[in-house]
Amino acid sequence: MWQLKSNDLSTERLLQEESLFSIGNGYIGVRGCFDEAPDLISNTIRGSYINGFYDRVPILYDESASGFPTVKDKQPRVMDTQTSLILLDGETVVIKASQIRDYFRVLDLQKGLMERSYKYITKSGKAAKIAFRRMASFAAKNILCYEIDIYYDGEIEIISFLDSDVRNHSDSYDPRVANGHDKLLHLNKLSIEGTLVFCEMETITTKIPILSMIEYEVTCLDSGHYSLEHNLEEQKIATKAKSKRHLKLQKKCIFIDGTRSSCLYEEAMEIHSKYSKHSFDDLISMQEEYLNSFWNASDIEIYGCDNIQEAIRFQLFQLLQSVGKDEISNISAKGLSGEGYEGHYFWDTEIYVLPLFQMTQPELAKQLLLYRYHILPQAKQRAKEMGHNKGAAYPWRTISGIECSSYFPAGTAQYHINADIAYGFIQYYLYHGDKSFMLEAAAEVIFETARIWLEIGHWYKGAYHIDNVTGPDEYTAIVNNNYYTNAMAKYHLYWADKLYHELHEYNNADFEELCHKINLTSDEVNEMRLASEAMHLVYDEELGIHAQDDSFLRKAVWDFANTTPDQYPLLLHIHPLTIYRYQVLKQPDTVLAHFLLEDYADTETMKRSYDYYEKITTHDSSLSSCIYGIMASRCGYYEKAYEYFMEAVRLDLDDKHSNTKDGLHMANLAGSCLGIINGFAGYRIKETGISIDPIVPNELAGYRFRIHYLDAWLEIDVNELVRIKLLQGKPLKITIYNKDYIVADTIEIERKQL
Amino acid sequence: MWQLKSNDLSTERLLQEESLFSIGNGYIGVRGCFDEAPDLISNTIRGSYINGFYDRVPILYDESASGFPTVKDKQPRVMDTQTSLILLDGETVVIKASQIRDYFRVLDLQKGLMERSYKYITKSGKAAKIAFRRMASFAAKNILCYEIDIYYDGEIEIISFLDSDVRNHSDSYDPRVANGHDKLLHLNKLSIEGTLVFCEMETITTKIPILSMIEYEVTCLDSGHYSLEHNLEEQKIATKAKSKRHLKLQKKCIFIDGTRSSCLYEEAMEIHSKYSKHSFDDLISMQEEYLNSFWNASDIEIYGCDNIQEAIRFQLFQLLQSVGKDEISNISAKGLSGEGYEGHYFWDTEIYVLPLFQMTQPELAKQLLLYRYHILPQAKQRAKEMGHNKGAAYPWRTISGIECSSYFPAGTAQYHINADIAYGFIQYYLYHGDKSFMLEAAAEVIFETARIWLEIGHWYKGAYHIDNVTGPDEYTAIVNNNYYTNAMAKYHLYWADKLYHELHEYNNADFEELCHKINLTSDEVNEMRLASEAMHLVYDEELGIHAQDDSFLRKAVWDFANTTPDQYPLLLHIHPLTIYRYQVLKQPDTVLAHFLLEDYADTETMKRSYDYYEKITTHDSSLSSCIYGIMASRCGYYEKAYEYFMEAVRLDLDDKHSNTKDGLHMANLAGSCLGIINGFAGYRIKETGISIDPIVPNELAGYRFRIHYLDAWLEIDVNELVRIKLLQGKPLKITIYNKDYIVADTIEIERKQL
């Protein structure tokens, strides 16, 4: 249950497994390609990536308009360090089922490495034992290690490459993958210094340098009888190790880039000397130690279902591998596991991934928020470009902070990202009550983003309206009073007003300074409060639900009966204008708002809403099932809760959206973990405190997880009983099944039966 | 009053005059560039064009989606025949104010040619008299003629080019001009055959050939003492004529293209021999004859204001020069006078240009309609691409019939073009009662386009709704129940039902065959009738007006007070999403519907509507002022009627939109002529007959024009009296000031005083 395993060598599966078996540490990531035989899969996506590292490419429009972004960030595929050729008595090892025995690979979630091995039968019938290991060190983020270990009764040769000839993956058909602009780096220098080889490259447009350095180490049983030589070729360095009977080649690659460092070579040498005494095994020990601590805080234990246990841990591990751990980086839609969505960061962070880290890894959560603070200047600039007089408009997709969305109806029009980000900061405040962080970073983001609602909203007949936005459901675009947006804005504005007073009280002088800096007055905050109070949340009396937007419920319902399975996802088969014309959802919108802001509607309304919208949702987005699962629990639809959860938790493992090859769906990885915590356990955090409402689906025996809340650390264990244990901190109140308890040590109550 | 004159040599004005002094005949057009000194204006748009001739270029999208067009038509700049160098004693003539005296040019609207002349002072102080003429023959559409006539006491040399090195104009900033893809033709062959020179080219993608042939003729006072030689250079043929004291070079250019001909060379030679005996002056005589007949039918005489008279005749003439006269071609947004909008045909044809020809040039009107019939197959194909089960969806912009709009919110979303085209056919029927044309072409277009309303509309609470369309006002996009669209669809569907019965009665067998061909049943027609009857036309009780769409009147009004003059047109300065958020119009929408379908609202509603919408209209579109002028007359706002009319009638002459350089605004040219007929004279045509409601603005003394109606030809003369004269045909009913009269010969009644 701590391992993802595979013995599948089929070509289609291998492309998908490149994503599943990715290795990363939040700074650097490398897809789970085969070291040997790089042309095994014709369309292999042989990528390594650095989080937050970007080039810029032009965006061309056939018909342009004012304010359209003219360039966008793009995450380059960096120099390839994973490729090696293996020769046995001069015969190149190729991956052919007929020559392979006992193929096996494993992603070890406790050790934090990927291992792969097989028995290879040469054409002359001789057998070799070949094993690989690779790891991206969490403790030393710049280090990526590979090991190839071969036993063979003959001559063994490994030619390992440091290859600068890399191009990004491109797909002109699928809008979820990028098109063109595949060459993003140029080579500055390849060099060899003693046992070290260097590759210095630079992004073509942004001129950000990146350096990769490899140190090779050879071991063989018959010590001394090996050779190692480096050959500088035009675009790569080929390192050849040779021995007989046994050869183990270890590569320690150091990556360093210009977004974080100005003296790449010097810093690389420093890191190198700092870790020069660390063997591969030493690094593995450090990795295990790091992961031990991670799992202690973040594991979600599943009782009675190994299948789910494996999936959940796989997801937690992959999130950890992809999440940025400094203010330069965040977590992109596909993390560091692929090139879908060009390495861009979306609202996925705040609404899907961040909540998980808020509970379990506060420091990581804080870093994700600091990234947003770091790009606030660009968001303010973007607001100006959009014609707003003040405030910040966060980009729908970005790496460096600039708006990188070229299709505004499902991009820039999603103003809700402003509220989503504010929501993240507010949740952090609820979790940790950290007023100094509010003062230093959060408040500025919350106020500047809140200002946008005053810019794009207006009063109409005593209510506050927000027109011409797109909500989370991208199958309806550019509408008025989208429920999700308005509800989130209402919450956002409420908090802006509340914080304004709380921070005044907390540290009047410093807060006054901030207000002065951003020119915030009590009049403006008062406007925010009034807008929040009068926010127009469209309610349909007849259906007893909130309408997704002003006109949504008056539209025709999509003709599901005459839509064939091959027409899904609709976005790949139907013109968006035609999709927008109908009541049809890509993903939850109002239902998502009910999850995030459940106090804005009563339970019966939420249930009716669920019933109505679920019927017309295609789940064409990978962000859909997990939320429907969580809200199914909330509505008491326990069978559905389980079904949706299972859909989400196996989405990448079973390649349900047929695009896992482009990278893992980070939001869904997190969302399905939330399926346990917010879904089955019914965990919520509000101003009034935390609460749970746990159920256990019939298919499981229970689950256990730990959360931080204020200065406390709690374990929530749901089995036949619900047991809450205070692991650290002062006694605190928790609401269980709508009844308040004080947890001082452990409390146990009966679990609700379905 | 039959001439457009200029003696302006300022550089900015010259670029604009390239458009104003364009020469064309509906097949070929050439901008009014200077023959000599081609580099006079650095950004000259030195173009010649063939109507309906096109290449295709890819449309690239940064984020593509299903159904987006991937290629578009583009009107290529064809081989240049207008360039000549003039040398006087070896000194090249350059256009410098210091060397030019008595510069003058004129576009002669009766002769149908452009003349230009000046006295040129060489550096040594000698004077030359230089004159130019050019003409595109209406009688022989393939022929374009140039003449250069020079008197100079010394050696005169003219080097005239047939130049294949042409590229389209490109502007990456202005969305109204195209960007990139400037090389659309490649050269196949240049050749010289005796006195004839040939240039054969081909569009790069569509492989449509085009041939240009020039015959040169030299005359000089000192006959015999001249030389003429052709030099074949890499991309052009240079023809050098030389003489002393006097030299007249005449060029007869024949253009022929592969959209209309399969044997270009042979046809060119045929045309050549047919006109081989025709001198330049013979062709001018034919031209005058043609134009005499044109003006007899189409002139709008203005009493008491030369300024307007000049402008109106200029407009009528330019429309005639640009309008296509076969089913391959139509009239593009800029006609044959420039490259704005890439030579595409829009709804401008049916709503602005066609009405004028319906009244005055029925044959031209019919050709414009036949073009739409000709591209019906592509429109049916497009409907499929948009996900519709049946019907035809006409492209928003096109040459060959395919959708060429890459920005669908202000392109494909304008489904109203279907009704606009149907409206054109219906008007033709009202004018000429031509049931055989209905049966042969019109009905099929009307039914196939009507089907789209059943595809995109739906029933909601007993009313018929049409969601997710964009109306004519492009400052609001993708809305529900746009008044213009719904009203036009209502009319369209009403006529579909009506025609179904009338054609059954007219010719049951043939009509049954058509119904069978397009699979049209009475059930479907019945659905159309029901939809028409129940069409949802949003009416706001409080304001007493029709809302532009469901949500329009609930939006915030644009902050006009804080918009500086340099922020107009808004489309060049504000992001469309921000524009769409507000009540702000680029051009009339509901007000235009009131013009076209005045019986759908009472006069008081139309007046309130005018009052309301006018205040929030920017007139950023050149299609705006003329309609506001017409409707001002209808509402009794006579001062405004005159002001808007003057704005429209001088739009290109005074370059009011600062883009006349990209071509003349064809819709406005026609629209301002309608300003007299539909505006001041209040002319309308309906099922019940024709009516007028004439007024004369204080600034004029009156006006006169002639119209065809059924088999009659009428003159309407408005002066102190309103005099209606039946020029041809049987007596008929006309309604004047709401009172019915029968015109048998002439009737005279008192004109309404303002």
Structure in words:
Two copies of one chain form a homodimer. With 754 residues, the first copy, chain A, is α+β, with helices and mostly antiparallel strands. The first copy, chain A, has a domain at 3-265: Glycoside hydrolase, family 65, N-terminal domain (Beta-galactosidase, Chain A, domain 5). In chain A, 32% of the residues lie in helices and 26% in strands. Chain A has 18 helices and 32 strands. In chain A, strands 1, 7, 8, 9, 10, 11, 12, 13, 14, 15, 16 and 17 form a twelve-stranded antiparallel β-sheet that branches. A five-stranded antiparallel β-sheet of chain A has the order 18-27-28-29-32. In chain A, a hairpin with a 2-residue loop joins strand 19 (457-460) and strand 20. In chain A, helix 8 (416-432) runs antiparallel to helix 9. The longest helix of chain A is centred in the middle third of the chain and has 24 residues, at 483-506. The first copy, chain A, is globular and about 85 Å long. Chains A and B meet through helix 13 of A and helix 13 of B.
